[in-house]
Fold each of these.
Amino acid sequence: VTPGLVSLVGAGPGDPDLLTRLALRRLRRADIVFHDGLVPEPILAVARRASRQSVAKRAGRAETSQQAISDALIDASRLGVRVVRLKVGDPYVLGRGGEEAHALEAAGIPFEIVPGISAALAAPALAGIPLTYRGVASGFVVLSGHDPHAYVPILDGLRPLSATLVVLMGLATRASLTADLLTRGWPDTTPAAVVVDASRPDEFVWAGTLAGLPGFSTGTSNALPGVIVIGPVVALRTKEHSHVRVRQSALVGSRPVGVR
Amino acid sequence: VTPGLVSLVGAGPGDPDLLTRLALRRLRRADIVFHDGLVPEPILAVARRASRQSVAKRAGRAETSQQAISDALIDASRLGVRVVRLKVGDPYVLGRGGEEAHALEAAGIPFEIVPGISAALAAPALAGIPLTYRGVASGFVVLSGHDPHAYVPILDGLRPLSATLVVLMGLATRASLTADLLTRGWPDTTPAAVVVDASRPDEFVWAGTLAGLPGFSTGTSNALPGVIVIGPVVALRTKEHSHVRVRQSALVGSRPVGVR
């Protein structure tokens, strides 16, 4: 049997409308989809003819399970079927897609990379926060907040306010992240925001300062993945201009504004 | 007349297949599209019923022309038509989308943000380079290479090799960027890559080290926008796994591999 193509596909931040045309096509034709636990049902439903396999990682067993995921992709490909490995956001941003690519390459399996919209960029945008702004921020840093040992070396030298900080998977560690920034000279008045469930119907934005970051509450969704944005650009935020809000406000309904 | 909705739309890196479903819908229904000079024709062609207006900036006149672009968006909206402002990549990454949003907000124009795939993330991915990798890089920095005065403060403190560097609009300044990194302690053996025309048929990848970065040549396309990636993750690159190559290799043709 000729091995089937494995597509490492980015699912984007959650709204099926933010899937790319290529991702839609790969999902529709997939025979089997291996997906993260965080991919929402409306996106999985695009893969209508595929069998689905959740490969959500269990805490503390990530090491074992990463190998198991790679093995499952290889085994499926060798059956000669079309395989999609579906990850939230972009497969190559903090998602261990690189490790899966290496395993596939080593096994001689044909694969391709289908980039997706990373929440690192989309969540701030949908909250009305430009990551860069002329005269305010000319670059940004994307970090995982999951493991302080990993992000501290990056923060160590970074000049306070020199770049916008975007922290994924940092809601749980936001108190220590804040302390780490304050001790490195970031003012406690630095604007900061949290975007939870970007692009989903319950999209939620908190905006304040670094001083308030440890204490904010999302209400019900405290355990959900959120994106933290820190830097002066947060103060430049425009409000309620996410396409999700526009859709809800019926600006683009059956009789949309702007069509004569 | 009720003002028309203005959609700030990210066109992605160039391949129409990397447009999102939402971007496709907005383009198809647009009455007028204001686009950058870099948006390729196959993407513009999606906006089949729209009139098109190029708002490419001329060197040295950016200041004036940014105001003119915002004014044009406002004027069009006030005619009651559907307006798309189309930018390569993501509208809020180094694209001055934030300034346009502010102008629209100040004028009371309804607008929305439609995130797109940024070349900052997609170009490395399509070149087989994961921006993060367990134990190698747990974060990345995105900079514009256009203006050294803007990026130098970010590089100043950044600990060498602590994060992957992604530089947009840096091909012209790559010699001075390399010198700036070497004087800040980055080893000249640091892996580096340049990705030109990511996701387009003539996608081109150069991979080497920081020492070789100033001297590499893309051949014909030296003036084109390219993405520079610097850091140990570049050495982890898998080869020829861009979906563009996969498509060209007929792995996914009329009789694709992997379909029984």
Amino acid sequence: MIGVDWGTTSFRAFRIARDGTIRDRRVALRGLLNVPDNRFADTLREEIGPWLAAGEQHVLLAGMIGSRQGWKEAPYLSCPAGAREVADCLVDIEFDWGQVKLVPGLSAADEAGVAEVMRGEETQVFGVLGAMGHSALACLPGTHSKWVKVEHGRIIRFTTHMTGETFGALCGHTILGRMMREGPAGGEPFDEGVRRSRDPGGLLHHIFGARSLVLAGQLAETDAQAYLSGILIGHEVRAALPAEPGQVVHTIGAPELTVLYARAISACGGYPERHDGEAAARGLALIGGHATWR
Amino acid sequence: MIGVDWGTTSFRAFRIARDGTIRDRRVALRGLLNVPDNRFADTLREEIGPWLAAGEQHVLLAGMIGSRQGWKEAPYLSCPAGAREVADCLVDIEFDWGQVKLVPGLSAADEAGVAEVMRGEETQVFGVLGAMGHSALACLPGTHSKWVKVEHGRIIRFTTHMTGETFGALCGHTILGRMMREGPAGGEPFDEGVRRSRDPGGLLHHIFGARSLVLAGQLAETDAQAYLSGILIGHEVRAALPAEPGQVVHTIGAPELTVLYARAISACGGYPERHDGEAAARGLALIGGHATWR
């Protein structure tokens, strides 16, 4: 089968063997925002045409491609949901060169009953089920980080944290960015920011330190960005980690992000276990295995 | 004397009688950013020329005009500091049509020892000393809100919260803003945001609700901005208010902001006492009264 993780900015396709091994892969900057005139069918054919010609027929798409802004809307499925429930709710798409199905996103409510949605992350979480016990916690860092509670192979609930997007807005559009110069993303200033997130005063106060410490000569302009990143990720991790220490957190995503989150999780008393971005391919294979193909 | 609250965007001048009453006032959008080629002397003369001609000679300037980006830098004075200490550290400026002095900003460290700075807010706080007891807490909401601890007429310490600027960056430069439409600033959605700030999950999680609740049809697009504002102000107030309830908070600033802060402070168990923007004039009069003029 062919599995595609099709998001807002990128398109990642995998040719997957019956036993789940990845036979081939393609990555392109052809996310939703980069597909002109909604030419999704043409884009898909251009990217995976050779694999279709080689005999593949089953194509499974996950991610924002199934949103209202995507090819076709696949309604959210309510949690709890596992790969089997998701496979039962795939949405068919017209495509002349093969069978294409969309993975639905998931909806849930947080502890206070506030609505939550995800699209694509559920597939990545299913991709690391093999490494999880009966009960597990996963963290998928990014523009909108997700923290996902898994029990017996099903996603029970999750929360979104706008950490990446807030970081970008603060660096690009507030006085904090004006004092920053290019520098390393991790290291001691990042750790210092994570430590800072434990202090009283709250996030809106802590972030001002990325300015006041520079003014006071106690933070280099080249370290301010890493310090701010540490404050924000520290706040996210502290809010999302259970109070009791020792929680294992399966961290799934791009290495440059999961390495920072792993540092923050450790600093906050958790045990990070890092997984790579191929989790999506394994999740697509799992869902595709449960699906009913013609 | 003449007192001027001269900030980044606005210029507010007061002609003050010997007994502290305000005889006249001028407001202009001639803040630092709007003064071409650093023509501060010309700007000042144009604005207060008639008062100088009428015999005023003593001119006291407070605010960002004393920063590195302003007319002349007035070094920060360390807390604790009262109006008398500030008056002892005024910085003289060359001006052919009168005696001009700059009020220095204040520096401090928060509970964790992180550097803090303010410029202009100290003068507003001194302006409401008359309404304060021996020990008081003041809140000056804005782009960079300040919470100021006052004891026996002196500013002991303070913290900055980047609430206003973060709100602007989130509305203008994240996905949250794309779902928002013009609506009222306060009301029930604001209060709901303040309540939300009490829930577990943290600020970076709560703000996502301004999107997910709209997606779920539980929040109107015209209410999303007020809800987000309530979340951010709620987080600021909860972090800055002492744990024990019943704290009186002197809220100083523009009425459209202090009315929102008063709602949030009440909801979080504090007692707001609102003061208007003329606090700056009264503070300038107090400092000017302690100053040594030629």
Amino acid sequence: MTSTSNLVDPRWLEPPSRPDIDDAASRIRNVLVETPLLENERVNERIGRRLLIKAEGLQRTGSFKARGAWNRLSLLDADEVGRGIVALSSGNHGHAVAWAAYRLGLKPVVILMPLGSPNAKVEHIKDWGAEVVFFDRYVADRAALMRHWTLERGFVAISAYDDRRIIAGAATLAREALQQTDGLGVTPDALLAGCAGGGLVAGCALALEGRTNDTSVWGVEPEDYDDTARSLAIGRRVANGKATGSVCDALLAPIPGELTFSINARLLAGVRAVADEFALKAMKMLFKNFGLVVEPGGALALGALLADPSYLREKTVVVVTSGSNVDEGLYATALGDASEKG
Amino acid sequence: MTSTSNLVDPRWLEPPSRPDIDDAASRIRNVLVETPLLENERVNERIGRRLLIKAEGLQRTGSFKARGAWNRLSLLDADEVGRGIVALSSGNHGHAVAWAAYRLGLKPVVILMPLGSPNAKVEHIKDWGAEVVFFDRYVADRAALMRHWTLERGFVAISAYDDRRIIAGAATLAREALQQTDGLGVTPDALLAGCAGGGLVAGCALALEGRTNDTSVWGVEPEDYDDTARSLAIGRRVANGKATGSVCDALLAPIPGELTFSINARLLAGVRAVADEFALKAMKMLFKNFGLVVEPGGALALGALLADPSYLREKTVVVVTSGSNVDEGLYATALGDASEKG
């Protein structure tokens, strides 16, 4: 959620190579989940596309973040072991880091989270033995917080996206999806995923580059949190004007990452901004037709198809449902209020 | 839900062979979903077993029934094509038959369902173009209903479980799970699944027979609907005393199947009866920790572990969450009421 590049060896601020991605895929095999690609012909007819849901909310820790966190913590340098781990996160990255550290026997772990984060995310992080330190997203100096934990306390910072090892992990998702579409004998026209710091779409775009020229990669942002769209439009990183207000808590990073933006500026087909109501409608559709619990930020990419029937019309679209960590109350509300027939 | 053996060629009332199961596995590849096996170390610690969730609610049509229905309808005899399809079902089998018929271009399809079936199941069945004919589960003569549709109307009856082609389909679930546990380098001590007509556990037990002697197969029934447990105890099929009253609508078949009972009597390690409240607790645990929507009947097998901490203690247990078709209101209730920490 903030750049920590001033603390990071510059070699980690290059895009991951194909061997980096292949190595990450080997590293996660039989530890992480090969999440299924789900389809429903009636839903396809209803929405006017061939929809292939990459059900990544089933991943370890309930989000794609486990791919990067596992890869990153499996690659700790010798001088990083035993120093403690710190990560800044709206929840899913912190959850993934806390779990990976637990599995690898690394401690202590501190997760810096904005006040008001979903209980589900806070509880899971604590459950893996990590300490949660809250900050006020309006007034906290995130870079200063990270400097405290890294420079003064000696912890190793695990960036949520501005790190080639993290992006290589995220890239394994699209690599896997492409193997699955190969199994179905189809090449997707597009892959859509939520975009906050931009690591997931950056990794996916890198994984597809050179493997297929026929699949465009799109990011999806909440309305009013379209920092990546606006940054791409003017060719440099600009911040969101708001810090809270969308139900998509996982997609509220203040500004695109440096490394991720450089990748996304080169490779993304575009970024769509979508209203929260379509995230909730998508959640209900995923409940009714796919048996999937998906959190709002994880459902917004599907929401982009529901919001604009002309967008990618008649195309074969892989939609990443990227997370499933949602409080019961909000989930019940989505099932009740999203009145659209799923 | 009723025996149709008087209408069925006796060759289909033999247990499926290993080649039958292998053929079924080939037939479903790239049409059905290879559902993932999910794990959470903290849940394992909390419940005192290594729990491997076979997430079959993600299957096409939201239940394991798609395996048997697809296999069966792919194997229609020449004289069966074009005659229409009829099935008696509490919902999931009918949903699976309606979808498979849609995919294979077979019609018309009639699904005979008890009044009071969940809306989610009725709507899905209609959505695939099938006609739903309701009956009163207290007074209807199910065998007479089936005779009407088959003998008078000429439809082909698709049994929910008393058919080797259906059981071969169900068996692919355990075959797949065993390949997945092989990948993890572990042999499960037990496999648990819900039991109504008994086709799922029968198929699973057949799939494991001869592949491993180390994995016991258990059925799980709702309290007061323990017809299979009581039938096994006395060595012949006896009916349930009640027809409604459990929230596990998928597990209320009136009496064990003939073919399935003969298999289960030989191969099951046992059958547990579990109270509804543990199905609801399991649903909440699956929501919080695995991102899975599971219906009550699909969650009851996990409920068996929650209900009795000493049962299969310290063992590695594959639990099949066999379906995800649940109405929103009941689901929200399960999330709210099941107060146990997931």
Amino acid sequence: LTRIVIVGFQSAGLTAAAAARLYNREAEITVVERRTYATYHPCGLPFVLGGEVPNIRDLVETTPRLPGVNVRLGVEAKAIDTQEKMLEVQDLRTLQVEKIPYDRLILATGSQALKPPIPGIDLGNVFCLRTVEDGQRILAALSRSRRAVVVGAGPIGVEAASALRERGLEVVLVEMQPAVLPGMLDPDMAAGVAERLAKAGIRVLCSKAVKELRGEGEVSSVVLEGEEIPADLVIMAIGVKPDVELAVKAGLKLGPTRMIAVDDHLRTSDPDIFAIGDCAEARCLITGRPLRSQLATTAIRMGRVAGVNAAGGDEVFEGVLNAVVTMASGLEVASVGLTATAASEAGFETSTARVRCLTKPHYFPGAGPMTIKLVAERKGQRILGGQVIGDGAAGRANLLALAIRKGMTAKELSQIDYCYAPPVSDSIEPLVVAAEALLRRR
Amino acid sequence: LTRIVIVGFQSAGLTAAAAARLYNREAEITVVERRTYATYHPCGLPFVLGGEVPNIRDLVETTPRLPGVNVRLGVEAKAIDTQEKMLEVQDLRTLQVEKIPYDRLILATGSQALKPPIPGIDLGNVFCLRTVEDGQRILAALSRSRRAVVVGAGPIGVEAASALRERGLEVVLVEMQPAVLPGMLDPDMAAGVAERLAKAGIRVLCSKAVKELRGEGEVSSVVLEGEEIPADLVIMAIGVKPDVELAVKAGLKLGPTRMIAVDDHLRTSDPDIFAIGDCAEARCLITGRPLRSQLATTAIRMGRVAGVNAAGGDEVFEGVLNAVVTMASGLEVASVGLTATAASEAGFETSTARVRCLTKPHYFPGAGPMTIKLVAERKGQRILGGQVIGDGAAGRANLLALAIRKGMTAKELSQIDYCYAPPVSDSIEPLVVAAEALLRRR
């Protein structure tokens, strides 16, 4: 009988529990979760703000539905005794402390929204967008807000800005990097997204750092270099920081990204403890380098591997390609693998091609533009990454993910089989057009 | 200087001309095409009938836009002198005959709609749906028609039936096989499509052969075994027959499917003559067996290879997986590789899994069902085929096409990277769910 204890019941912890349960019918599986409700869907929050999802309660699963798993809500993990193999926990209602013995421990402690240490960060109406409570607070503030500033133009920032604009607020989106969606897109592709945001009425300011938030009690303006922007609502969307406190206290090693270091079985420096999800370091499948993935999909994929391994299996987590999709004021934007910028930084000599196609035949109503940028190694033209903008971008990024994983070249990509029917797609697949453009670069 | 002559200016011929032009700046390229307009988009015809495409003229490209290629419209190829390497052609307006010398000849003669030799087939208001003229005739007949029978429930038949129903006609769809979309789907998956068609008000009759069409001058009923269905409009959509007359007269070999036999460079039995598109035999990438592909995408892919080879290159056409998508009364249906039925016929021992997921998170408006069936080899679980129904089916089939081409197993498919954002997809990719279901079959 194996006793598996899991800390955290979001995407990673939930999936690990389910995978362990499936793999080993005998294991005794306990999950402790600080929240008083089971799981929620953080990626849905921007769409609650925008009104597409009518009720924030819809994002919350109040009770765990996982037969054969003992899920203890409202219970916080306080310390790990790695010698005795005990997890010390505290019930947040009764404040009672107890020790839970484990044979295998899985840390899925997640991450928290990053709040920069700038003056005014604690003013009223300055929010993050990470928890259900964040969402509720912003919803409550919406009706008395007119001018919003969103700081950070990653996927969440872009979606939040789009949502607030949709709700009729004046919105300024501020990004420190020279272009929006900096991790996902090269600047040439980001320009198209910024254009769409501007068209929707969002003022986009890049290469601007926030110096200070001003106001009395509540925020009234955001101070950038050389500019002060009036604002009665601010959303900080500059990223998340991994929750590694428990691991550090237990003496587990951190990796170069300051996340919990894990091997390819997702074991930490203590072989009986696994780490998964936003608190665990991932590895880039292309470069082999450690990176912060912190995606729900990565959490789920890691959860599956660690759950099986903790239950006695032998699964390998090979790494991530960071396939990401976001909606920018109705524009579908997806990315996978390395951008040209990231590929150069990683030491690759690259060859790139950018093409513009239609999502359907020109004569079909609803045909829209699709822009694709492919990044390949100059020699041999192995695909390293892709950026896709337009309806159906996510599907193309998923296909590119597979192509990258399989080490495919532009030549091979130009020869793929694909479907065609006018209401769905054009007779020449945009990815093939992009691959052929790369071939002409040889 | 190479003289390349191409017969036929649809998907295959057009692509071959363009590819040859790109590959060899010196080549002299001539295309002869019987039609008086350049190309048209036959796959768009059902959507003209349904009204989504407002004008049938939108499907026609009246003038060829291919710089550096001499396209001769209204000119019919009559005979090939393989000894002298001359193509005999006739101008259909002047009736003048001439001989065009070639170094390489590419046959892209296409196919014609199949008309079964049953009584009444030549009655008025009995149509095929293949050419622009077919479309125009049906459009003209629509206003005076009330009851339609569509014979053949392949993609075109299903789309035509959906279109006529959309226009308000009473529609009966008759299929000889036991289920709709027989080449694309196994019967268990076809049931869902038949249900959707029925819901749209189409009467679907399977396992029924048409014996006779009755009427005086114009059709008034369709006679099946044991049933006579009143009809004032009939569309025959039972398939196409390859146009191989020119090739046969020239002594070129046909393959077991009675299409022009070609090698992996798309050369016919005469090494200076290539054949591509609907008239040329394709090969299944999985079984290696000859098959009738007759898809626009196959024509395009073949055109590229033959165009380059005719111009002095060395490209291989590896075969097809027959990725197909169709719309059944608004339902997206896609298929790739082998169905379970086809896999068994090809001698595979198979393992299959069918799952039902959502296209988006349950809380997101517009989330709809997606059904996926995967077919794998029982041993080792190499993926052989997939059938997908629901929004985004085509993208999944494209991804499966790549997985099949790369010889991926269910295990590998369960580990893919994919994108997630609530407006676009759920946090667990349906293909992963399907792959995991297959894994549990081991």
